[in-house]
Fold this sequence. Notes:
The complex is a heterodimer of chains A (120) and B (830).
Chain A: E1 8-15, E2 18-27, H1 37-46, E3 51-62, H2 64-79, E4 83-87, H3 91-99, E5 107-109, H4 112-118
Parallel strand pairs in A: 2-3, 3-4, 4-5
Antiparallel strand pairs in A: 1-2
Helix pairs in contact in A: 1-2
Chain B: H1 2-13, H2 21-53, H3 58-82, H4 85-109, H5 114-140, H6 143-171, H7 180-210, H8 221-224, H9 228-237, H10 239-269, H11 273-328, H12 334-360, H13 365-397, H14 400-435, H15 444-451, H16 454-467, H17 471-483, H18 489-496, H19 506-510, H20 523-526, H21 531-540, H22 542-557, H23 561-574, H24 587-591, H25 596-609, H26 615-621, H27 628-638, H28 643-651, H29 657-670, H30 673-683, H31 688-704, H32 712-732, H33 743-753, H34 756-768, H35 771-784, H36 787-797, H37 802-829
Amino acid sequence: xxxxxxxxxxxxxxxxxxxxxxxxxxxxxxxxxxxxxxxxxxxxxxxxxxxxxxxxxxxxxxxxxxxxxxxxxxxxxxxxxxxxxxxxxxxxxxxxxxxxxxxxxxxxxxxxxxxxxxxx
Amino acid sequence: xxxxxxxxxxxxxxxxxxxxxxxxxxxxxxxxxxxxxxxxxxxxxxxxxxxxxxxxxxxxxxxxxxxxxxxxxxxxxxxxxxxxxxxxxxxxxxxxxxxxxxxxxxxxxxxxxxxxxxxxxxxxxxxxxxxxxxxxxxxxxxxxxxxxxxxxxxxxxxxxxxxxxxxxxxxxxxxxxxxxxxxxxxxxxxxxxxxxxxxxxxxxxxxxxxxxxxxxxxxxxxxxxxxxxxxxxxxxxxxxxxxxxxxxxxxxxxxxxxxxxxxxxxxxxxxxxxxxxxxxxxxxxxxxxxxxxxxxxxxxxxxxxxxxxxxxxxxxxxxxxxxxxxxxxxxxxxxxxxxxxxxxxxxxxxxxxxxxxxxxxxxxxxxxxxxxxxxxxxxxxxxxxxxxxxxxxxxxxxxxxxxxxxxxxxxxxxxxxxxxxxxxxxxxxxxxxxxxxxxxxxxxxxxxxxxxxxxxxxxxxxxxxxxxxxxxxxxxxxxxxxxxxxxxxxxxxxxxxxxxxxxxxxxxxxxxxxxxxxxxxxxxxxxxxxxxxxxxxxxxxxxxxxxxxxxxxxxxxxxxxxxxxxxxxxxxxxxxxxxxxxxxxxxxxxxxxxxxxxxxxxxxxxxxxxxxxxxxxxxxxxxxxxxxxxxxxxxxxxxxxxxxxxxxxxxxxxxxxxxxxxxxxxxxxxxxxxxxxxxxxxxxxxxxxxxxxxxxxxxxxxxxxxxxxxxxxxxxxxxxxxxxxxxxxxxxxxxxxxxxxxxxxxxxxxxxxxxxxxxxxxxxxxxxxxxxxxxxxxxxxxxxxxxxxxxxxxxxxxxxxxxxxxxxxxxxxxxxxxxxxxxxxxxxxx
Lengths: 120, 830
């Protein structure tokens, strides 16, 4: 399933009880679509899934709006007792997360395998 | 016993310091033995010339002397270049000694040209020997020594003049008239012995002082290698020397005019060569006796009391009234002519000569040697020549009876010019004295501020330290460096050293040399263009604030070792947020954290956010010696808007003293007029260490912001109280006042009232200078402080015996206490 505008594509896939969102393109305010990452996460939470993994391997750019989407997703998941984790974020984004201390809040992994293991 | 009695009488007149009396006596004696022969020669010169050639030809004699003096300066300078000072002086004395003997023989021949040659020679004799004598005085003494001793030394000249004049007065009518020249020769020979004694003393002192500090007493060979042109150029290029030359010119023009008036009037009233010589002899003796007493008793006290500037004006003003009176009222009478000439003569050789010689002392030896020779020898005679030309012109225009009045009026004009030049040179003298003093050290804080970027250095150190603590903290520091555009290649190199210790930091990767295999490789690519903007935008997000606030709450609860680092990160990160962001509420807790490291980061963030509610928490940390500097730095970064708040702490007597002291220092760093006003206000009631801290802050403000205005009344009042305290301390325990810590308060206060640089220089040189630099420091104070302040400060700073200082401190205490009581009474009445 491919949803969203040309600039951003989000493809969910499932491994056991874990939802993995493969995100592609750019996540930015100027390209807001009718469906956002946060909405997609909420849909999965409403469906009863509590383990969310966001894969940024093919994300080329992310602005503050994109970070807001991640954080909103994190809060929603967390409030329902779930867990949201990130993988393959760029060094640039990691840098921004460090400066904003989000590395202290968010669980960030280098690869999918270690992230999946952490859900166990 | 008798010797002791003499010494005590002399000590009452002259303020000798230990070891000075001997050398001062030999200077006195030398000057006596130079002047006495001259005053034997001078009346013979005058009478022989007037008798044979008449006063109409006097201008010819003046003119010839002026022309010849140019050659003499040239010859003297070149001769001086080849010889050491001692050889130059002794050979010159021997030359003139032989000349006197020769003239004695020539006068026996009764040739008509002899008086003309003798006139010119006599003038050269006086100028060369007196110039050499005063150069020697200049070489040996610093301004303070000279001010003390110049009256005594100069009085030797007057005494010599009296003796010489009396000898002429008594013997001129006898057959022994020309034989007096042999007496003059004998006295001059004795002068050689006295001068040799001075050179011996100077040699032994130079050896002793060479160990203390280099002190240039003997002009360097290069300095004396000059001819007439070099001397002229040296004088022409330097404003101060030009002024001295101008003064000499004006003085001597006036003197020439007055001299002509006097001679002219006397010639008409006193007939006959020997009668004239006798009259001149008695007249010289009388004026010299007056000059001697004036010099011995009044010159030094006048100079010390009124300073050089005012002393310079006494002589021209007296002549001004005399000349104006003679020109307007009684131009042909002998009484006013004698009175003016007597004033001219007595003051010229006492007060005026002393002050003029003092003006040469601060000049660097090289320039002094050149210019003094030029001014004293050439300009002196040139001025006489100019005076002669003026006389010639006036005599051509006016009949002789009217010429005396015309000469008086021209003299008035020249005196006014002379007085103006004296005022100018007085100002320049103070400048020259300042230049003799060097600033020995700067304020430590100023030096650090100028040479080290403390904030930047701290950031780099914190960055390096944070590498081992936490990747987030490290990233936050690096972000700071990027934000401040200070991630220079040098800093990158420094912080990339061993960056593998911080594998977890993505920013750390920026500085690694090896490829990580992840993402982009170049630093330019890694550092986002809009990093700062992105961070700010993210932090402004509500969701971000919600997430981080929750995180901070948990972090603050964690009191473990790991929790300290997390709180440090939080404290640092909060500083990047907007002041009213919800997560910033946690800053208050971070400012009160148990860990000094956490508080330090929190204080930095507080300084960035500048929230008024954080000020009390920062002020509280001023009590903590570990955090005081950081808390102060943070409060300073708040800027002038918190001055009022800080002033409340400063003025609160219930507040902890360490806080009040630190607040005083912070106000000193804020650099505004408001800070000055609050500090000065508090100074009125502050005592002890708080007063010292306030004075120090005001000192810092004046040093860095000289444009600010400092309330004089309050500062003067405090100055008096500080002097009072120091005097009382000295009377309780007679240690040198400058060794007391509180002495710096006095000079800092002076620096607020006068030139900051001058007072700093004066204090530093008084405390740690050589004998000469201490003398120049006192001379500077003497010239820039007005009398009231001078009287207040000098008992504490002058080189006095303990007894004398005690006496003066007691007197000062009494007068200050009385003054304070009076002012209190006055205030109560009001």
